[in-house]
Amino acid sequence: MDDVGFGHASSFGGVIETTTMDKLAADGLRFTNFHSTPLCSPTRASLLTGRNPHNAGVGAHAGTASGYPGYNARIPKSVGGIGQILNDQGYATYAVGKWDQLPMEHASVAGPFDYWPSGQGFDHFHGFLHFDANHFDPTLWDNHSPVLQPAERGEDYHLTTDLADRAIDYINQLNAVDPHKPFLLYWSTGAVHAPHHAPQSYIDKYTGRFDRGWHWARETILHNQIAAGIVPADAELPDWPTSVPIWDDLSDDQQRMAARQMEAFAGMLDHADDQFGRILSALEAIGELENTIVLVISDNGASAEGGLAGTYNEATLGGATWAENLKFFEQWGGPNTYPHYAVGWAAAGNTPFKYYKQSAFEGGHRVPMIISWKRRIRSTGGLRPQFHHVSDIVPTVLDLAAIGPPAMINGVEQAPMDGISFRYALEDATAPTKKDAQYFELWGNRGIWADGWKANIHLRPTPWNPYARPQVDSAEWTLYHVDTDFNERINLAASHQEKLEEMKALFQREAHRNQVYPLMPDSFAALAKKHGEWLRSRDYRFVYGADAVRIPLSLAPPLYSASFEAVAELELTASDQSAVLFSYGGDDGGFALYLKDGVPVFMYNERGLTRHVLRAAGKLREGPIAVSLKVNRDHQRADIRLQVDGETIAAGTFDSIAPGAVHETFDVGADYGSPVSEEYLPRTPAAEGLIKRLTVNISPSAS
């Protein structure tokens, strides 16, 4: 699961109905002291390799890779993962859904594919490569090939259903051919990472359920958790974060909007749970459910990245206002929004812990975990309090499958596993924790747990503001005895200074052992340097034929940040021709140059809020013709010119011009993601022979 907080699902006391997980918990065990990392990419690298994230080269998000070993987004050959290990043991291996642990410049048909699922030991892959996806119009891959959908999808299409369909297909196909062959299925749904997209019926199911607000939700969840024994009977909530609005201080319209945000989120999680149930039903239908180890975890705590008011479009980076959001109230959670809820809901979703995704506090990484193996786990329905970490999953699965960690994979000596098996905890609820220590680190936020104590340092208290400068000099370590203060309410740093120094020294040792240093490498400077070198190597010039499609934005001309000229050389055979010449981005933000009934049009879609259009006055003539788009930037402002064979046919100025979401692509002759403009059909290629060549020249100032 993605961005599911400790207190979201009903199986962990939440107020969202997750009946499949409830049944799985009844048939298995819930771990109540289980930890991921504070972010998606590092968790997934750790989950699949059994190593701590920095030792797997993914200490931060793969899209912010820098050259340091702990942060380069290149999983070493000496860190072979569960896909390769089980594949070598004769298992069929499938990866379905979100991948998000490869260098972004590798996310194209050109590869290389070393860090794709195929390079990590998976026989087949169907899913997406970035941190999120449009659940109504996703840009998907099938193994190494982009999925170019037909012109129209059904009205009921949703990505999570698609991913469940593919998982079920893999299970049934294998069973038909070789029913005795064991398999590994890594089903990694994009739910409930933004955009919070759900079928309308699921959103409607939750209408009115969250009208009492996030404080009510928080108190209700804690009550449920105490009743279920998930947290201690005397558990108390930590203080409400001072930076987050009090529900009763919101206006009626703001409360109405905030409740709608949570309705969409809840509908998305409920829907994903149902699709997960379909997969389990498929296993049951072939008689293999009882013989299958099923593990469910979240990749990090609930996300506060939607900002104080939430946002109709995640690309605003938490910068949307209540007034802007209210314009999308009726559409919220549907195809015309790209939404994320307000931070108050993240604070409630992480009940009973404080802070959120990205934090080294428990709210950032203490997550729900369920394991079921009906044939072997006898004490079903129980709880397990032992401290464990996502790096422990691979050692446990290998232990349960009676497979030892290999010393060599493909001739490369393997680094030891950082995780340990928690098989002992499956067999004995009262067994003491066998984990010795565990560090946490993300973008300078860091912590260390050992022997029932936890020390943290918190540099980024407002994750919805990525531009806030971390207060490195003034940040102080905090200390908690989590064996008695499980949700970090009582800071003992002043009264237990000797213990704090011991914990700080332990963090230093673990950080050096796990390639955590240098802390906070300037990944943005590294990316900018690499980007500039790449542009210079291309002489700031990109030349494409008519079949250049599904180019990731990381490898596309940087139209979002540079002045540029794009020239489309055409052979127009009809004066009323309609076609996309190029598209960059999608319906949540981007650019498109296209012909509408023979008239050249340039559209800038400003994050789905406003569509700015520059349209020529008349149709183009038939025959060979060159249509050029010139964009001259001055910071966010841009002067735009449309020209035909060097003659200006339309000109204008846009006051704001900014990028769209990174999950979309650059396409020539079509728009293979969600459409930038509603004036053309997506995924509909231009007539054969229309586009001879597209040339994009970037201003050298872009580097």
Report the count of strand segments: 29
Strand portion, in percent? Answer: 15-25%
User: Strand order within the widest sheet?
Assistant: 18-29-20-25-26-27
Helix content: 10-25%
Largest sheet: 6 strands, antiparallel
Described by its quaternary structure, the protein is single chain
**How many alpha or pi helices?**
14
The backbone outline, from C-alpha atoms, is globular
Rg is 26 Å
Q: How is the topology of this model organized?
A:
Layout: H1 19-27, E1 29-31, E2 34-35, H2 40-49, H3 82-88, E3 92-98, E4 124-128, E5 141-142, E6 145-146, H4 159-177, E7 183-188, H5 200-205, H6 213-228, H7 252-285, E8 294-297, H8 322-326, H9 343-349, H10 362-365, E9 369-372, E10 382-384, E11 388-389, H11 393-400, E12 408-409, E13 412-413, H12 423-427, E14 437-442, E15 445-450, E16 453-457, E17 477-480, H13 497-513, H14 523-537, E18 541-544, E19 551-552, E20 564-572, E21 579-586, E22 589-596, E23 599-606, E24 610-615, E25 623-634, E26 637-644, E27 647-654, E28 665-668, E29 691-698
Helix pairs in contact: 4-7, 6-9
